[in-house]
Design goal:
The structure is a single chain. By secondary structure, the chain is α/β, with parallel strands linked by helices. The protein has three domains: 179 residues, Rossmann fold; 158 residues, 3-Layer(aba) Sandwich (Rossmann fold); 183 residues, Rossmann fold (3-Layer(aba) Sandwich), CATH 3.40.50. It contains 23 helices and 19 strands. A hairpin with a 4-residue loop joins β12 and β13. α3 runs parallel beside α8, α11 runs parallel beside α13 and α15 runs parallel beside α22. The longest helix is centred in the middle third of the chain and has 16 residues. The protein is globular and about 80 Å long.
Length: 644
C-alpha cells in the first residue's frame, strides 16, 4: 500500500492533475492517445496517484475504491470571476463595457461576481471609445485603477485612443479584450473582426506602444499569473495595461482559481540614500543662496504621490507656490502663499512676473510641451531651475541625481531650507485683486465671463470640475477651488470629447462629489451619447454645454470653414436620451437671468437629476488667454522647415 507523505502540488501540476479535456489537435494531425499504466500480477505498486493522495488527506481509501476521479472544482472558480475579484481588490468596482461576440461569456462571468460579494458592477457604454474614457475618469477619482472590457480588434482599436490618453497622463487603466477562441491560435484561419489575415496579433502590436504590459491569455494554466501580473504592473507603473482573453475560457472552472489568491502587494520603492543626500545637499545650497526663490508644481506630482510633501516643503521654506496648468487641483489653492497658475503669457495675473523674475525656481514633476509652454515661449532659464521628476533630480546646468523618489526628496529638503519669504512679499506688493465682470443688462446676450462668475459660487468641497479641451481650459483655470474640490482636465493628450466619458467615470467612482463639467459644442458632438449612460445610472452631474457654433480653440490657432459645425438642438438631444426614463433636467439659456434660474433649479429641486444646461454665446466670445495662447501656438506650428 502507498505510504502517505506530505505533498506539495504547484498550480501548474495541479492543473495537469485535474485536467478534464485536451484541446482539439491542429488541422491535419491525429490526437495522441494518453499512456495508461496497466499493472500485472508481478508489477510493483504504482506511485501515489492523484486519487489516493486526495483521499488519504481526508480518510483512508477503501478496498473497493473506484478508479481515479478528479475532485470537484467550485463553480465560481472561473477565469472571468477571478478577474472580477482581482479588479475589485484594487478598487475597480465598476467596469465600463461594450458587448461583442468575443467577450459575451466574459461579461457573463464578470456580471456573476457581484460587488456585494467582492466583485464588480458592469456599466454598459454606448461605444468603446467612451468606455475607455470613462475608465480614465474613474482612475482619476482616486479609486486605484479604471477598467473597461470590449471585444476583439473592432472594440480594442476603438478604445485605443482613450488608452493612449491615459498612458500620456500616467493613469492606471486595465483594458480587457475578449479574444479569439484558444483553438484558433496557430490554425492559419481567418476570423471576422480582423483585417483579413490569419494573424491575431495586429491588435496586440497596436497596444504595445500605449500600454506598459500586455497579456494574451489563451490557456488556463497560467491565466491567473498573467492577469495578476498585468494588474500589479498597472499599479506599479501607473500606466494602462492590455489583457486579451480567449472567448472560450472565461466560464471554465479551473483549480488555480479556486484558491484564495495572494493579496496584491507592491514592494515600496526606496530612494538611494547616498544619491538622496547628495541631491538634497546640492539643492539646499542652490536655493539657500538665492534671493527670491519660488516653487512650481507640475502634473507628475500625482503619479509620484508627492503633493503632500510638496506643500510641507513650501510651509517650511516660505516660498510662494504656483502650479502649471495641468497640475491645477494638486496643490490646495487656499494655501496662504498660493499665487496661481504659471502658464507663461497666459498665467494668472502677477504669477508669471514673480516666477520669471525669480533667481531660482524648483519645478516639481513638470511637463514642458508646446501647450504648457505656450508655443515654447516660457521665459525661464535652465541654469536657474531645479527640475524634480518622480525618480530623479536635475540642478541647473550641473549635476543630475538618479534613484530618488520625489516625495523623499521634498521631505528631506524641507528641513534644510532657510525661511525666505522675499518672493511672496514681492507678490503681495504688486498684487491687485481681480475684478468681477460687469453684470449684463436685462435681455443682453450672455457672456462667457459672466457664466463663470456664477459657476464660482457653485463650487464647494463636495464638487469636482472637469474641463474639456478648448476655451474651457482657460476659463476653468481662473476658478478658485475650495478645499476638497476636485479638478481634472486632459492637457498632455488633449483629445476632444474626452470629458463626456471622463465625467461618467469620475462620477461613478466619486459618489461623494457632484461633478460639474464644461464642454464645447464641437467636443460634445464627438462623444455625446454617453450622457444617456449617466441618466441610466442616476448620476446628478451638471453639464454646461457652451454653444458658440464651432471649434473655437482651432479657430484661434488656424481659422477655416472646416471649424464651423452643424448646430444641434442640444437640449433636445439630451431629452431624447432621457426618453422619460430616469431623472433629467435641461435648460437652454441665452441671458444672465436665464442662467441664474437654471443654476438655482440644478442646485435646488433638481439636485438629484442629471442637469444639462446649454449656454448660447457669441462665436467670438473667447477668453483673452485663448487669443494669446492660440497665436503663440500657431506661430510654433507654422515654423518653416530647417535648412537641409
Amino acid at each position: 500500500m502507498c505510504q502517505l507523505q506530505p505533498t506539495y502540488t504547484s498550480p501548474t501540476q495541479s492543473s495537469q492533475l485535474f485536467k478534464t479535456h485536451e484541446p482539439s489537435p491542429p488541422l491535419g494531425l491525429s490526437p495522441t492517445r494518453p499512456r495508461i499504466f496497466a499493472p500485472t500480477a508481478n508489477s510493483p505498486p504504482p506511485p501515489c496517484s492523484p486519487s489516493t493522495m486526495a483521499t488519504a488527506l481526508g480518510s483512508l481509501p477503501s478496498a473497493s475504491s473506484s478508479p481515479t476521479t478528479a475532485p470537484s472544482i467550485p463553480a465560481n472558480a472561473t477565469l472571468g470571476r477571478h478577474l472580477a475579484r482581482r479588479l475589485a481588490e484594487v478598487g475597480a468596482r465598476d467596469v465600463f463595457t461594450v458587448p461583442g461576440d468575443f467577450n459575451l461569456t466574459l461579461l457573463d462571468e464578470l456580471e456573476a461576481e457581484q460587488p456585494s460579494g467582492g466583485g464588480v458592477r458592469l456599466v454598459g457604454c454606448c461605444n468603446e471609445l467612451n468606455a475607455a474614457y470613462a475608465a480614465d475618469g474613474y482612475a482619476r477619482a482616486g479609486r486605484g485603477v479604471g477598467a473597461c472590457a470590449v471585444t476583439f480588434t473592432v472594440g480594442g482599436l476603438s478604445a485605443i485612443n482613450a488608452v493612449a490618453g491615459a498612458f500620456s497622463e500616467n493613469l492606471p487603466l486595465v483594458c480587457v479584450v475578449g479574444g479569439p477562441n484558444s483553438n484558433d491560435y496557430g490554425s492559419n484561419r481567418v476570423l471576422h473582426h480582423t483585417i483579413g489575415l490569419p494573424d491575431f496579433s495586429q491588435e496586440l502590436r497596436c497596444f504595445q506602444n500605449v500600454t506598459c504590459y500586455q497579456a494574451v491569455v489563451n490557456n488556463l494554466e497560467d491565466a491567473h499569473e498573467q492577469i495578476d501580473t498585468a494588474i500589479s504592473t498597472a499599479l506599479k507603473e501607473s500606466k494602462p495595461v492590455y489583457i486579451s482573453i480567449s472567448c472560450n475560457l472565461p466560464s471554465i472552472p479551473h483549480p488555480t482559481f479556486s484558491r484564495h489568491p495572494v493579496p496584491f502587494f507592491l514592494s515600496p520603492r526606496l530612494s538611494n540614500q547616498m544619491s538622496l543626500e547628495a541631491a538634497v545637499e546640492a539643492a539646499a545650497a542652490f536655493l539657500n543662496k538665492s534671493v527670491k526663490p519660488v516653487l512650481v508644481g507640475g502634473p507628475k506630482m500625482r503619479v509620484a504621490k508627492a503633493c503632500k510633501s510638496f506643500v510641507e516643503m513650501a510651509d517650511a521654506s516660505g516660498y510662494p507656490i504656483a502650479v502649471m496648468p495641468s497640475a491645477k487641483g494638486l496643490v490646495p489653492e487656499h494655501h496662504s502663499r498660493f499665487i496661481g497658475t504659471y502658464w507663461g503669457a497666459v498665467s494668472t495675473p502677477f504669477c508669471a512676473e514673480i516666477v520669471e523674475s525669480a533667481d531660482a525656481y524648483l519645478f516639481a514633476g513638470p511637463i514642458f510641451n508646446d501647450y504648457s509652454s505656450v508655443g515654447y515661449s516660457l521665459l525661464i532659464k535652465k541654469e536657474k531651475a531645479i527640475i524634480v521628476q518622480p525618480d530623479r533630480v536635475v540642478i541647473g546646468n550641473g549635476p543630475a541625481f538618479g534613484c530618488i523618489l520625489m516625495k523623499d526628496f521634498f521631505h528631506a529638503l524641507a528641513s534644510r531650507l532657510k525661511k525666505n519669504t522675499t518672493a511672496y512679499e514681492n507678490y503681495s506688493r504688486i498684487f491687485v485683486p481681480q475684478g468681477e465682470p460687469i453684470s449684463s443688462d436685462t435681455g443682453e446676450p450672455l457672456r462667457v465671463n459672466v457664466l463663470f462668475k456664477h459657476v464660482q459660487t457653485m463650487l464647494s468641497g463636495s464638487s469636482a470640475v472637469i474641463s474639456e479641451t478648448g476655451d474651457s481650459w482657460f476659463n476653468c483655470q481662473k476658478l478658485k477651488l475650495p478645499e476638497g474640490c476636485g479638478y481634472e482636465f486632459q492637457m498632455q493628450y488633449g483629445s476632444i470629447g474626452w470629458s463626456v466619458g471622463a465625467t461618467l467615470g469620475y462620477a461613478q467612482a466619486a459618489k461623494d462629489k457632484r461633478v460639474i463639467s464644461f464642454i464645447g459644442d464641437g467636443s460634445f458632438q464627438v462623444t455625446a451619447q454617453e450622457v444617456s449612460t449617466m441618466i441610466r445610472w442616476a448620476q446628478n452631474n451638471i453639464i454646461f454645454l457652451i454653444n458658440n457654433g464651432g471649434y473655437t480653440i482651432e479657430v484661434e490657432i488656424h481659422d477655416g470653414p472646416y471649424n464651423i459645425i452643424k448646430n444641434w438642438n442640444y437640449t433636445g438631444v439630451v431629452e431624447a436620451f432621457h426618453n422619460g426614463e430616469g431623472k433629467c433636467y435641461t435648460a437652454k439659456v441665452r441671458t444672465e437671468e436665464e442662467l441664474k434660474k437654471a443654476i438655482e433649479a440644478s442646485l435646488g429641486p433638481n439636485k438629484d437629476c442629471l442637469c444639462f444646461i446649454e449656454v448660447i454665446v457669441h462665436k467670438d466670445d473667447t477668453s483673452k488667454e485663448l487669443l494669446e495662447w492660440g497665436s503663440r501656438v500657431s506661430a510654433a506650428n507654422s515654423r518653416p522647415p530647417n535648412p537641409q
